[in-house]
Backbone:
């Protein structure tokens, strides 16, 4: 079944954030800091105010006048009042009649800055591995430490200890559509139209940043040209609204790609040390140390570390472990989510480590993983129940494919395997409003489809499965935060898995109401000549004849559904410092890749790829397969070429697509997608989320294939030809 | 810098725009003066292909071309491509193949593919058609569905 948004998108008929326009609209440009760390000594905005076409210029001082309650010292201040924390941080903003005029005025603002010491990299802060006293270092903004079992004892008596250090790089979401929004003040209400994954989250966030009541802020989503985690919380919206207040006119703000890269909240580099103790051929204890660059984050923001660190233990039974992570403040933009935040990086380190350990022990890498793999009745490191989990099934399927690939594999080629797991269907919850009209069903939503199909197809399919309507009789209607029911947003592999449960409940409520009215145990719906029919046994009745006069006047029958997930808990006695976060519904991924390594250049060619994905139930198979293909190729970018590179003084060297290289069409290998069903998730009809899991094992699978091909391991992402050549001692 | 009037042939029509700066790019003239926002604005550095239009029938990055450089060459945008049978076949193929997710790159792909299919009576083979899409980036699909769309579209116009 074709997606209803596909054809209009293909002919360019839908309005994205970049396309937004309003009568009398001004264009905005940002004045950005020339240094990565410093104090503003003087900034003269008067000159810019007099330039042609300029209508409003706002800086730190104006903030106090225009919005006296604006949050001035939170993690994302609208403008820094004292300290500039990263290069390119916005220090003022301009609105003018044309974009060119706004940019010219922004460029003319002279910012005098007293430079301070720049900490651009983890190595600048901790040239040596930190001692236990590191928690007191002022750069440490988050510290998490968890322990379970007799770790020291098991390491003392181990037959073998495998110790390695891995490094990962900064990677950018690069949604093709840059961030863009339009802010205006209408009858005293702050209105923002924007390309966002989370309209309701954005409302809360922007209201808090600007110091205005949420009731005074209206968020309306546009179509979204890709999100991948980058279009969530308040980012550019406060600037547009501030300029709208100052100018009294609608203001459009769209970032350039250079700004996307220099301001973006992205995955930042990390150093990961892993020590594993082995006895009788099995892992008996693990030590994990993580140094995660969290950019210009303020103290107490340890979510990135507390959530990520669990992925470094993997989907494996762990009798004893000691894991410790530090979030480090550097002079970069704050760390932000990127499709399965930090999981591909964690899994690169862990799955490279496990693979190397298996080889060292002379064990088959797939069998070695199977020995330790979580089964349904296992419990996680933090003592959460695992539940139905398709890892073992995935490993068995991968082993069969690997055996086929092994026969006749040419010299210089290698096969790599890697596992991953993800917690899907997260978020506070969501609500659904369904409206059954005489000619079809309307699902009212506050959030737009962001591309993966989870809204436009996923939610429709859930209603369709419950009610039996054909797809062309179901329509999604998008509202704003004032008219649409609340939902946490499109992120965390949650739309179908979590919000889908609200839609399912609402659809079941509709079905029950209609069954009661016709006096049947159950009914289903079909359409004939554009009319909805209610079918019970052999009886078919027109919906319109079953409606009350009030419902007929209102245009149809309305039903509501809510899904707020039960709170999950971790065993707090295992947590010595900070917070580790509970996980939700687990999905397993097993990836297999064949590579060809060029022994002269270090170039890695991806020959073929197979992904075995635990999806619970594939509610919409083509859409699920599409997520796997897309996730794999995005992961190949992380594996092979994508790397944000900073100088020691905090300048991003490659703020554009010429030097930050994404996979192109000829880089996409043949991908075999094998969906593993039967390990039911909590989502509708047993579905698990699918947006993020397919990217997770990719870099590790590629690295393991390179090790298989060459006998040499690469310890740092991405696996550029240069790094591979160095590892092979060609350079 | 001068802001003189500018005339362009867009999608078969003569369009005249008052006060167009010399430095204005075709992408901006199309989107903000002609109101043809189906042409998408991506990187503005010629690396992503989202802004692809036809100039004189050839796929062209409208972010790298000054509007004044276009001269008398006819300009065809996605709106123009969508109005002719080959364009419609390509659009249908993309939709049917599941090659449209966020859709931001799609008009650029459609224009680039339709141009190749329209060049000769018998279309090039699938491999050369795919080679012709190397300049277009997609972040959602992993390209496999786009390759399936290419095969479908080629079959449809044969």
Residues:
């Amino acid at each position: 079944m074709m997606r209803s948004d596909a054809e209009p998108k293909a002919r360019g008929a839908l309005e994205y954030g970049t396309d937004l326009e309003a009568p009398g609209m001004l264009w905005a440009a940002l004045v950005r800091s020339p240094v990565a760390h410093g104090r503003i000594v003087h900034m003269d905005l008067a000159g810019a105010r007099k330039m042609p076409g300029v209508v409003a210029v706002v800086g730190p001082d104006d903030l106090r006048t225009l919005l006296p309650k604006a949050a001035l010292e939170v993690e994302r201040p609208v403008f820094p009042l004292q300290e500039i924390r990263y290069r390119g941080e916005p220090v003022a903003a301009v609105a003018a009649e044309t974009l060119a005029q706004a940019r010219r005025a922004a460029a003319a603002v002279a910012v005098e800055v007293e430079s301070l010491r720049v900490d651009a990299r983890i190595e600048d802060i901790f040239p040596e591995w930190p001692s236990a006293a590191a928690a007191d270092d002022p750069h440490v903004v988050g510290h998490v430490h968890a322990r379970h079992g007799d770790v020291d004892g098991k390491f003392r008596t181990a037959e073998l200890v495998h110790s390695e250090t891995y490094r990962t790089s900064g990677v950018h979401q690069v949604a093709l559509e840059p961030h863009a929004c339009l802010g205006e003040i209408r009858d005293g209400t702050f209105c923002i139209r924007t390309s966002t994954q989370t309209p309701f989250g954005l409302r809360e966030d922007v209201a808090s940043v600007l110091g205005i009541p949420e009731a005074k802020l209206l968020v309306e989503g546009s179509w979204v040209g890709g999100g991948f985690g980058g279009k969530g919380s308040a980012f550019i919206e406060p600037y547009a609204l501030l300029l709208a207040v100052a100018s009294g006119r609608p203001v459009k703000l769209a970032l350039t790609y250079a700004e996307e890269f220099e301001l973006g909240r992205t995955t930042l580099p990390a150093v990961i040390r892993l020590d594993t103790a082995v006895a009788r051929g099995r892992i008996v204890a693990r030590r994990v140390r993580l140094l995660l660059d969290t950019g210009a984050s303020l103290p107490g923001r340890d979510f990135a570390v507390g959530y990520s660190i669990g992925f470094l233990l993997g989907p494996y039974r762990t009798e004893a472990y000691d894991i410790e992570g530090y979030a480090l403040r550097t002079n970069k933009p704050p760390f932000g989510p990127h499709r399965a935040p930090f999981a591909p990086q964690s899994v690169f380190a862990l799955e490279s480590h496990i693979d190397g350990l298996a080889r060292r022990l002379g064990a088959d890498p797939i069998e070695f993983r199977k020995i330790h793999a979580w089964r349904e009745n296992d419990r996680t490191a933090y003592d959460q129940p695992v539940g139905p989990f398709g890892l073992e099934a995935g490993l068995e399927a991968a082993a069969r494919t690997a055996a086929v690939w092994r026969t006749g594999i040419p010299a210089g080629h290698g096969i790599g395997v890697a596992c991953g797991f993800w917690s899907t269907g997260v978020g506070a919850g969501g609500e659904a409003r369904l409206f059954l009209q005489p000619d079809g069903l309307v699902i009212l939503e506050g959030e737009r489809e962001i591309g993966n199909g989870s809204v436009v197809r996923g939610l429709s399919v859930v209603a369709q499965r419950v009610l039996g309507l054909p797809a062309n009789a179901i329509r999604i209607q998008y509202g704003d935060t004032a008219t649409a029911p609340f939902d946490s947003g499109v992120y965390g592999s949650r739309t179908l898995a979590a919000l889908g449960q609200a839609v399912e409940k609402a659809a079941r409520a509709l079905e029950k109401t209609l069954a009661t009215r016709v006096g049947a145990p159950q009914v289903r719906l079909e359409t004939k000549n554009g009319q909805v029919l209610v079918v019970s046994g052999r009886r078919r009745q027109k919906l319109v004849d079953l409606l009350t006069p009030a419902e007929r006047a209102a245009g149809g029958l309305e039903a509501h559904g809510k899904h707020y997930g039960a709170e999950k808990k971790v065993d707090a006695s295992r947590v010595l410092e900070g917070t580790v976060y509970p996980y939700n519904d687990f999905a397993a991924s097993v990836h297999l890749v064949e590579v060809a390594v060029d022994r002269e250049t270090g170039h890695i060619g991806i020959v073929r790829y197979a992904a075995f994905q635990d999806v619970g139930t594939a509610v919409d198979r083509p859409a699920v397969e599409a997520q796997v293909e897309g996730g794999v190729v995005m992961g190949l970018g992380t594996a092979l070429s994508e790397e944000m590179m900073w100088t020691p003084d905090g300048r991003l060297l490659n703020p554009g697509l010429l030097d930050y290289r994404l996979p192109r069409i000829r880089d996409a290998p043949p991908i075999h997608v094998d969906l593993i069903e039967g390990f039911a998730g909590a989502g509708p009809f047993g579905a698990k989320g699918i947006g993020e899991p397919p990217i997770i094992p990719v870099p590790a699978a590629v690295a393991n294939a390179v090790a298989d091909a060459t006998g040499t391991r690469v310890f740092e992402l991405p696996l550029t030809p240069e790094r591979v050549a160095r590892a092979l001692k060609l350079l | 810098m001068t802001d003189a009037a500018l005339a362009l042939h867009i999608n078969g029509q003569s369009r005249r725009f008052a006060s167009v700066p010399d430095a204005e790019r075709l992408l901006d003239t199309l989107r903000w003066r002609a109101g043809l926002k189906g042409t998408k604005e991506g990187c503005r550095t010629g690396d992503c292909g989202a802004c692809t239009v036809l100039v004189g029938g050839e796929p062209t990055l409208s972010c790298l071309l000054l509007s004044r450089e276009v001269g008398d060459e006819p300009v065809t945008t996605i709106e123009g491509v969508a109005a002719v049978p080959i364009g419609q076949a390509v659009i249908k193929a993309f939709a049917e193949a599941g090659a449209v997710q966020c859709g931001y790159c799609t008009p650029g792909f459609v224009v680039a593919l339709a141009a190749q299919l329209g060049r000769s009576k018998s279309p090039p083979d699938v491999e050369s058609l795919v080679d012709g899409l190397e300049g277009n980036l997609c972040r959602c699909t992993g390209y496999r569905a786009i390759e399936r769309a290419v095969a479908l579209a080629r079959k449809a116009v044969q």
